[in-house]
Amino acid sequence: MVFQAVAEYRTQVKDRQNLNLVVELSIAGRRRPERWTFERDNMHLTWSDRMDINKDFNVTARGTGTATLSILTLYYARPVEKKSDCTFFDLTVKMEKDPKTKQGAIETYQLTMNFLYKSDKSDATMTVLDIGIPTGFTVDGEDLEVLSTEKERCSQKFEMDKVILYLNKVSRKQEEVISFKMHKLFNVGLLQPAAVTIYEYYSTDARCTKFYHPERTGGALNRLCKGDLCYCAEENCSYQKKNGVSDQERFDRSCEAGMNYVYKATVVGMDLQQTVDMYNMKVEQVLKEGTDDNVEGKVRQFLARPICREHLGLVKGKSYLIIGKSVDLPNLGGSVQYILGEQTWVEYWPTREESQTPEHRERYMGISELQDAKRCCSKQEKDGIRNFKRLEKACEDDKGYAYKVTVVGTVLDKTTDIYSLQVEQVLRNGTDNDGEGQLKIFQAHPRCRESLALQEHKSYLIMGPFTDMEFRSGRLQYVFGVQTWVEYWPTKEESQTPEHMERYVGISKLADTLAQQGCVN
Question: Please, which residues have CB within 8 angstroms of residue 500's CB and are 6 or more apart in sequence?
Fold first, then answer.
């Protein structure tokens, strides 16, 4: 039996040593799948991805080895007021602005709580009133002192984020009232509702909870609704960018991780309601295409909270630069819905006539430069690169390419940087059938010069998708796009140094793998 166990162990260990497993996760709505490669050096690592719960997905595994797939459903929920929670108590909470503001405070509010014990037989005995305090607020000390000395008040406990009152009894016949002032000491970007809970000391499960907020009735959540479908909008407002916007800031935001789309859009109509503002915007130009395909020339509806109306300052008939994140594109009723959220970039796009005026000239030129750039920067990969990451990138696109190139010439201009690269070795040919020794022309925006950091007569590993190739004047030209992989390829002499040894071995292993077996299908 011992020898049989040892033999079985040896068989399993051998299988693990031969591990070479490629796993693809395809999610509905995404242009290309996520791909992970498991080898001996990363076999114990766990990879993960996030997706909406209502998206269809497909997992495909190829190669040799065994992996485990785990799915975790995560959702966020706030405490809600349920009628069943208030079986034993009636409770109403109201927060109103006080006309007199205490010295040193920004604003003063009056918090009033009305409550009654719901019983036909007796009053409630020892009762606890747990009062949460909103962030940035403090309770008036004099009012608390008065409360503690009133009849039927047993004692009180004050903490940074709550006040707890212990009541000797709560009447079943006459509604009782407790009121005190709260002072706002500093502003909070996103103020959350606070809760008030009442319950009997010896029956803690029978609680009644109500929420309150200085700006909302009952502390209700902010929601944007289209018909019966709603989207939680519990965040700050988006502000229209006006003064002091630099060209670099605008460019960086358009290429920021998570930014889904970049549009020039004109407001063609608006429906401003009490609960939601709806802006109908015609997409005049797509500078960066996102989840919503073929949108240029079409009208899309953008939703915003009414409280953000003044901050946005959108005007019918005017055009704007809109840069939006993926999280602000929820799927409502089977279609993509645009939300003007906290991180949405909104900036007025001047007309050509307005560009002649001092007020609008600089903004017009800056947006025009962004319009010409269109592509985000790729950057040279440097430290901490694992071998399987290179292989994933090389095999990411079926039509993609992977070359060893040497920079033989550069033309650096104000509008376009042109790099002449000689192909020393073809690791993957992609759609370009030209072989080794050929000269390739790569283009990049001047803003990308520093992040690329290419040097003449140095060699690099260049890998890119099919979308980074363009036909111009009958010739295929390459573009250093945001998805282009650029990594220094050390010389044989440099491979003997600690600084370059690991990188040289890793790139050489990639070249051997692609030469021997290509991308595992």
Answer: 490, 494
Provide the residue type at 203 as one letter.
Answer: S
Q: Which two tokens stand for residue 121?
A: 């037989």
Supply the DSSP string of 142-204, one letter for each residue: HHHHHHHHSTTEEEEEE-SSEEEEEES-B-SSS-EEEEEEEEE-S--SSPPPEEEEEEETTEE
Q: Tokens for 224?
A: 């944007």
Separation of alpha carbons 338 and 323, rounded Å: 11
- Both tokens of 330, joined, read 């929820």
Rg of the chain's alpha carbons, rounded to an integer? Answer: 31
Write out pLDDT tens, residues 386-395: 777 888 888 8
Q: Please tell me the distance from the alpha carbon of residue 204 to that of residue 168, in angstroms, as a whole number.
A: 16
Closest CA to 263 of 341, 320, 200: 320
Are the beta carbons of 87 and 118 closer than 8 angstroms?
Answer: yes
**3-class secondary structure for 354-388?**
HHHCHHHHHHHHHHHHHHHHCCCCCCEECCCCCHH
Q: 128: which strand partners?
A: 166, 199
Go through the domains of the chain in sequence order and give each one's CATH number: 2-64 (2.20.210.20), 83-219 (2.60.40.690), 223-373 (2.40.50.120), 380-516 (2.40.50.120)
Count the residues in the chain. 521
Question: Using CA atoms, how far apart are residues 281 and 298, in angstroms rounded to an integer?
Answer: 8
Q: Which residue has the tokens 């020039």?
A: 264
pLDDT tens digits, 323-379:
988 666 665 555 677 888 888 899 999 999 999 999 999 999 888 877 765 567 777
345 sits in which H/E element: strand 345-348
Letter string b/e over residues 350-371, b meaning 16 or more CB atoms within 10 A of that residue's CB:
beeeebeeeebeebbebbebbe
Contact of 378 with 460, CB cutoff 8 Å: no
CA–CA separation, 298 vs 337, rounded Å?
Answer: 14
Q: Which pTM does this prediction carry?
A: 0.49
Token readout for 144 is 């608390």
**Share in percent of the chain as helix, strand, coil (round to 5):** 20, 40, 40
Pairing of strands 485-488, 459-464: antiparallel
